[in-house]
Structure formats: C-alpha cells, structure tokens
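Problem 12. The chain below contains 542 residues. Write out its predicted structure in token notation.
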Amino acid sequence: MASANTSWSEENFSCPICLDVFSSPVSTPCGHNFCRTCINKFWDEQVQCKCPICNKMFDTRPDPQVNIFVSEMADLFRTAVRVKEQPCYEPGEVPCDVCTGTQLKAVKSCLVCLISYCHTHLEPHQRVAVLKKHRLVEPMDHLEDRMCKKHDRLLEFFCQTEQECVCQFCTETDHKSHPVVPLMEEYEVKTALLGEIEAEVQQMIQERKLKIKEIKDMVEFRKKDADGVIADGGQVFTALMRRVKKCRDDFNQTVKERLKTTEKQAEDLIKELEQEIEDLTNRSSEVKPLSHTKDHLHFLQAFRSLKDPPPTRDWTTVEVRPPSYAGTLMRSLDQLEETLNMEMKKLRDDAELKRVQQYEVDVTLDPDTAHPKLFLSEDGKQVHDGGVRKELPDNPKRFTWFTCAVLTRQSFSSGRFYFEVQVKDKTVWGLGVARESIDKTRWTRWTPETGYWTLDYNKDKLVFNDNPDVRLPLRARLQKVGVFVDYDEGLLSFYDVEARVHIYSATGCAFTEPLYPILYPGLCEGGTNSAPLIISHVNQTD
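Solution.
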C-alpha cells in the first residue's frame, strides 16, 4: 500500500461509535471496525456483547484484534487532511474568505461585502461596474466587528462621552452633541495611559518586593536578638546548676515561641505580599499585550473591558511588631532564691532598655520656646542657664515667667518615642514631656493635671512630679537619663542609661494632645550647676 486515496471522505475512516477518525481500530468477529476504546466501553455497558452495527450476539466477549490495514489507512488520511488544510498565509496576515481548501493571503477587504479577498477573488471588484463602487481597504480581520451595527458603516471615530467607537452617521445623529475624535487620536491617548498603568504596576511590584526584603531582614535581626536573649538567660540559669535546668528550658522555650509567633506573622505578611505581586503580575500580563497592539478598534474595545486593578493593601504603615522579652526572666526566676532577685532585675531592665532604645527619635531644642535666661547650642542639642536674662522679642511660645525651661521643635501625637539626656555634673535638673497647651506665661506646678510628666533631681532627692510627688531612691552617679513614651498606651518610663536599670514608670497617662520633650537645666547657682543638659545619641552597646 503506497498511498491513500485522499479523495475519500472522512466517513470512510470514521468509527461508527464516536464518529471520529479511527484510533487503534480493531475488528469484531462479524467484520466491523471500531476504535478499541469505543467498542470496549460499549460492551462494558451491555449485559450481553453484540455488534453495534449488525447486532450479532456473541456468547463470550470477543477479544478484538488490531486491523492493521484500517489503521494504516486512517493514519494516511489524517496526515493528508492536515497537509491539505494547512493555510498559505503567514501568522498575523489576513486570509482570503472566499478560498476553499488552501486559503491564500488577502490583499484587500471590502467594507460593503464584509469579506477579505486574495488577488484571484478580488478580480470581480476590479472588473464589474457595480462592485467597483465598493469601498476597498487594507486587509482586516473580523470585519463584522468593525462595522456599526446600527448604520452598517465603518467604525472610524471614538465618542469620549460614551467611551465607545462610532461611525460617521453616529456622529451626526445619536452622538451629535458629544465630543468625538478619530480612532488614532484616542488610541494615542489610551496608549499613553496604558504606559502609565504599566509603570504604576511595576512600581507597586517593586515596592512589595522591597517590603518582603525588609520583613526578611527584620526577622533575621530578631533571630539574632532572640539568640542574645537566650544566651543572657543561659548565663543566669547555668549558675544555678541542676536545680534550675527546668527553669532554663522553660525560659528558652518561651523566647523561641515568641520568636516563632513573630516569624509566623512575618510569613503571613510575605504570603500576602507575594499574592499581591502575583495579582499585579497578572494585571501586568493583561495590560502589557494590549500596549503592543496597533489595532485601534481592538485596542479601545479591549481597553474598555479591562478589569479593575486588584485590591492592594497600603504597606507603608505595615510592620511586624517585635516580640517583647521584658519580664521573661523575672517570671522564670521568681521561684529561685531571694539572692538572685537583683541579678534578675538587672537583666530585665537591660532587655527593656534595649527594646525601648529602638524607638529613638532625633529631637532638637526650639529657641522660640527657651526662657530668656537659657542658652542653646547651635545644633540645638545643649541647654544651660547663662545667669543673665536676655532681651528677646515677645513670642507666645516662649517660657517667660519663673520656669527656665525649653521645649523641642518636634512633637508626637501617637506611637512610641525615646530620647536620652546627659545630666552628668548637674546638681539640679528636670526633664520629661509636656502637652502642647501648657501655660508658659506664669508659674505652674508641674504635674500631669497641668500637662507635665517630668522627673526632677535636686541634690538630695529624685522625684516624679505628681500630686502628691513620687519620691524615688537616689541613684549614685546618675549621668544619663532615658525617656520612653508609648502615647497610645499612656505609658511614660525613665531609665538610668549608664546603670541600665529602670527608674520609674507612670501608667494610665491621659495623653490627648501633641507631646513635646521638655528640658529644665536648673539655675546656675554660682557655677555649681553650670554644666549643660545634653540631648545624646543613643548607644545601644552601653
């Protein structure tokens, strides 16, 4: 068998069951041919096996064998059909709608006939007088979609009011009062807009990738932080030998679980970011192909059908809140000997100070608020009593009465912030925060009720100004004080930075206005208190 009779129809090589060209044809004992899968499925559904064509009954289920001749003929027919149906036009070209069998490349499209023609089939339009009047244009596919359904005219314009393509008759009737522009003009506008959308999508993708890196870096930092906490705890618990092994294991487990919680939170955020990136990438995939099309009509119709961009979260304020290990050691060591209480407190305070120091803010003193007797450094970081009252212009922001204080330029209305002030060699000083509405024109006792939350030192006593005052133990060699505020929680804490211990905390504070850090350097007192108060840079390695 050298060749197949390709003039035969598909029916000659079709399975009587599936009606498609044979696939693995087999013959029944009665001589009829079927696809192996079709005949087996047919018999599976019968109580007694029979031929689907002649209904011949079989006592036992036959084992049909492959019909080699029919199989070869079906393969030859299938190949011949594929060769015959292969078009002669290249991808991207418009085929002739008249050609049967092999389709040739169209050279013109008729807007009257709504058909595209090759050179051969275009000949009547170049010869017949009536056809010569038809409007021929460069080849276009889907001609019926390019015509106005109402007026049967070419869609050549774009209505900016209705945001749809219209024909010349539409501009003179239904869209007469609407702004209408040629398709090319609107195409250029939409192309530029599409470029902006693509750029915005790419920027959002990059922002989310950067956010993922930021979260991963934060988690790595927290891992190191957790390792440090575990190591500190290990030093304490090891000293207690076998008696505290269980306590040490519990401590390590607690820290690891808190870290695990942070990692889980970070993992969830990363998954959400990656999902947004995937959504945005899909959005980019939808938009990008459209930006390359030159077909005005297809572009505008497809642009109109673009889906809204996927909803995304504003990630600028999203953060993974760091785990807090403050108090972990205290809870673990409460069951140990009383002699270890001081060591536990020191370790707790050190961890707490490290935590709050992460909220350091850069603040500078505001000369417009400084009492006339105060002198500020050029960088706004130092203040001291000069002993002389300067003549300064009136300013409603300035302390003008007894209180020789100064506020910072910066204020805070939410969140957490921390700053440190050097008080070395001072015999009198005060510092803390004050609300925006304090009265600076007359003497007022500093208390939370009057808008001040401050710590005062005066030679033989250290107090938190309240009603009544809270007397605190004197600290030897107090050189630097840290101030931490959690505005939303109403918390204010003071720390001895050099000794790395907690001094005092005020809780339940009614913070309802912007807060300003406040410094009171105290009077010079004949040179004994001439050292300045200095806003210092936080050094977490202290």
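Discussion. The domain at 10-85 is CATH 3.30.40.10 (Herpes Virus-1). Students who got a different answer should revisit the alignment rule from Section 12.3.
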